[in-house]
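Below is how a single chain appears once it has passed through the pipeline. First comes the sequence as given, then the structure the pipeline wrote out for it. We keep one example in the README because the format questions we get most often are answered faster by looking than by reading.
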Amino acid sequence: MRRATFIIAAAAVCGCAWWAGASAGADPVQLAIALIIAWLAQGLATWMLAARLAAGSSAIGVWVSGIAMRLAALLFMWVLYEQALVGRVVALVFGLTLAALVILEAIWLAASSAQIRS
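Resulting structure:
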């Protein structure tokens, strides 16, 4: 699986999350900004991980950095929610979307490793 394919799939997940959140009553602009941040964080983390794996070098540091980046994004969203700068639905959709993107990354890694072995 190519990196660009993953980025497109992640954008599709974020688009579906935006639709679901907007349907649940979230502010569409806040939600769009939050999901763009989720997409960028996930995309950057996966892009760096894929580059390291393609080079055949150790990816543990990059993987830990990606996890830390996503946790920092979640913490930032929590602070915004606690300060009443974003609504509850925006914060929930953001967190659930990040979780879905991490699962998508795991599927992408499994599919990539299966292609490498065959």
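The first helix runs from residue 3 to 23.

See the next section for the split statistics.
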